[in-house]
Amino acid sequence: MSTEVYLVRHGETMFNQLNKVQGWCDSPLTVKGINDLKVTANALSQVHFDNMYSSDLKRAIDTVHLMKDANLVSDIGKIKKLPEFREVFFGTFEGDDINQTWDQVAMAAGIGHEDNVAKIINQVGLREFREATKRADPRHLAEDKDELDERMVRAIDVLRDVTKNEQRVLLVTHGDFIKTLSIKYWNKSDDKHDIIFPDNGSVTRGILHDNGKFEIVDYNVDAEKL
Q1: 10 annotated active-site
Q2: Whole-structure pTM over 0.85, yes or no?
Q3: Which domain of life is it from (predicted)?
Q4: Residue ranges matching CATH 3.40.50.1240 in the chain
Q5: Per-residue CA distances from 149 to 139, 162, 221 (Å)
Q6: Any binding-site annotation on 14?
Q7: pLDDT tens digits along 201-217
Q8: Which entry of 4, 87, 128, 131 is annotated as an active-site residue?
Q9: Is residue 191 scored above 60 in pLDDT?
């Protein structure tokens, strides 16, 4: 049996608002973030889910509970947290200014000063962007492409195990993780060119097929348009 997976990006957080790097570090949802999520939750309130899951970071957990509380047609028990679906880890850059961080990454990638992440990725490719992030990190703790790729494969394996006999599930995760997952599993993307960053509260839909394969079929969709 195939499983339809609704990947929802958490709502806007304080660090999003302050333009700070936010991976494994956490910050609370803003009032705007909560209000935007209520729109998503209302749009999905009549969609039946066999289960709901989230990353183990609080911004994702708070988001999934908003989805659960608004849903009128699903009987969801305790939310299972999946740490494999955490955001990308940015090491020493966690909590730093985003533009300053990307400028340091661009310098490490050898392209000079550039603080637009999309332009950096389009010039050097995703693999080199991740490698440059790790090089630029003073402690070299940031996840590189291989480390993140290994975690994404493990995440899909875990999801496959926990969703056996479930036809449709909702999973709250994070922007860069959703984007990188989509580059890997969406046939409209590739490793060389950047795709837009998913919006807070948006839905990216994937299918876990009977044959074990995973594919992204919709990306960064406003829930009201599903």
Answers
A1: yes
A2: yes
A3: Bacteria
A4: 3-89+143-225
A5: 21, 20, 24
A6: yes
A7: 999 999 999 888 999 99
A8: 87
A9: no
